[in-house]
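Regression test attached.
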Amino acid sequence: MFAFAIRSLAQGVLVLVTVAFIAFSMFRFVGDPVVNMLGQEATQQDRQELTERLGLNDPWPIQFARFLGDAAQGEFGVSYRQGRKVSDLIKERLPATLELAVLSAIFATGLGVLLGVYAAINRTGILSNLIMSLSLIGVSLPTFLIGIGLIYIFAVELRWLPSFGRGEVVRLGWWSTGLLTESGRKSLILPVLTLGFFQLTLIMRLVRAEMLEVMRADFIRFARARGISDRSIELSHALRNTLIPVVTIAGLQLGSVIAFAIVTETVFQWPGLGALFVNAVQFADVPVMSAYLMFVAAVFVIVNLTVDLLYFILDPRLRSGRRVAKGH
Amino acid sequence: MATGDTGMEPVLSVRNLSLEFVTRRGVLRALNEISFDIARGEVLGVVGESGAGKSLTGTAIIGLIDKPGRLSGGEIWLKGQRIDNIGHDGLRKIRGRRIGMIFQDPLTSLNPLFRVGDQIAETILTHMPVSKAEARSRALALLTEVGIPAPESRIDAYPHEFSGGMRQRVVIALALAAEPDLIIADEPTTALDVSVQAQIITLLKRLCRTRGTSVMLITHDMGVIAETADRVAVMYAGRIVEIGPVADVIRHPRHPYATGLMGAIPALGAKVQRLTQISGAMPRLNAIPAGCAFRPRCTVAIGKCAEAIPPLVPVGATSARCWLHETPVEWSASHG
C-alpha cells in the first residue's frame, strides 16, 4: 500500500514536471517577454539590461530550474496584460471555478449513480427507458447549446434565474462564496446544471451498464441461492462491485469538470479560471496561460492520486500484505 | 413412493417436472417429465453429459430459472409443501434456509469485496432470528467445521486470500449456514484440483451425514457418484433415462445409454483393452428425434424406438426408460 502510494506520487510529480516544461517552453516561443514589458520605444541597452536582470541570458536548464522553483511556490510571474501577479489572479478566480465544479460533480455523480442503479434494476420499465432516451441527448448535445437552451428557458422566458455572473458573493478570508446569498445560489443553478449534465448522463449510462454486467456474475446468483433479499443484493452486493470502475471514470470526469469549465464559464460570463484563460489566450498573456496549464495538470494529478487511494478502500484485492491460505 | 426405504415422507419430491425456453424460433423443451424423490439424509447423484439438463433441474428446484426459461408442468414438493408455485418471496425464504446450493466455481461464487465471515453471517441473519454476535460465532463454528485452519483470523479475510479448495470449503459453509434440509451441489469439484476434489466430496458427505441433510449431487464424474451417492439418476436430452440404487446402476445398467456411460469408466485391475465410447453427440434441443432421443446413437434400437417415447419402467432394482424393458402394467402401479 505504502509502496503503491509512493509510486503514484512519483508518477504524479513526473507528469507535473513534464507539463511544467511545456509551460516553460511557451515563454520562449510565444512572443518576447522583454518586448512585451518594455514596449516599442525602449533602447537596445534597456533591453539588454532587462534580459540580464530577468536571467534570460542564462542557459535554459537553469531558467527551467528557476521556473520550477517558482512554480512550486505558486509564483508564475506578472500578467502581461493586467500587470498583476498571476498567483493573485488565480487566487481571486479559483473560488468561483471550484464552487461551480464541485457542485456540478456532486450533482452529476449523485444523481448519475442513483438514476443508473434505477435504470439497471428496472431494466424494462417505462421510466428507465425514458431516462435512457433522455440521457442520449445529454451525451450528444454540446455543452454550450445546453447552456444557451437553459438560459433561454429559465432566464429569458420564465425569468426565474439570472443568465450571467455569480450574483452577490460573501468573502471569507481570501475565499469568496456565492453559497451564502440568495442571488449567489440562484446564479449557481444554471451553470451547475450545464456543466454537470454531460457528466451526469455519462456516469448514469456507465453505472447502468456496469451494474447489469455485475448482476450476471456468479456471486450474485449464489447470493440469490442463499436467499439474500433483492434489495440487499442490488444495493450492497452489486452496487459495491459496480462502483469500482465507476470511480475511475467519475474521478477523471471530475478532473475535467474543474479543468475545462471554460465553455460553461464563457456562456454564463462566470468569473472563474476558465474565463481568465480565454482572455489570456486572446492577449497572448503567457504567464497566465502557463499558470493555467500547470493548474490543470495539478488538478488531474491530485484527482488521479485520490482515485488510486479510493481503490484501496473499495477493493480489498488490491490491499496486499496479507498471507494467502496455502494447502488444503 | 418409489424410494424411501424408511417409509418416511421424502425431503424433496419432483413430479413430472417440465421446463421450456420460449425463443423467437419456437418453444424448446429442456426438461421433460422429470420425477424423482430424495429421502432424508440420502445422496442422489445426477449424471449425464453437458446439456442433458442436470444443472437445469437443480436450478429449477431452487427457483432460479432465468427468462426465457419457464416451468411448463409438474410439481416440486419440499417436505410436503409445494414450492414451484409460491412466488418470488416464498422462494426467497426457502433458498438458503431449506435448500442450500453449491455452484461449480468457488472462485466466482463469493463476493470479492466482502469478508467471508460477513457473507456467512449475512446468510444466517437473513434466515434466523439471531443477534449479530451470535451470527458471527456461528460463522466461526462453521468455518472450523469445514476445516479452515486458524478460523479466528481467517473469518475476517477476503475471498481472494483463500485458495480454490479453501474457497469451496467456505462455499459449503455458506450453503450449510442456515441448516437447510437439502443441498443441491452443482458440480462442486469440477473446477478444483484433482488432489482437492476427494477432500471436498468427503467433507460434504461427512457434514451432510452428521446433520441428516439430503444432497442432490450433480456431476459428470461417475467416480464421485460411485463413492458418494446412494442412488443415481442418469439424464439424457432432458429426461431421466435410468434411476436406481448406485450399485445396481453401475453393475447392471439397464438403459443402453447408462450401459455406455458405465463402460466408459476406467477400472483398476480390469483387463480391458479399450474403454467403450458412445458414438455421436447428444441432439440439440431443437432437433430431438421422435421416439427415444437416444435412438440415433443406440446400438440395440428396435423399430418401436423411432415411434414412441418409452416410459420409465422398473427393471430389477432400477427403473429405465427403454423399450427393451417394457413392462407397462407394473409401471403404472408403482410410479405416479
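Expected vs. actual: identical. DSSP finds 13 helices and two strands in chain A.
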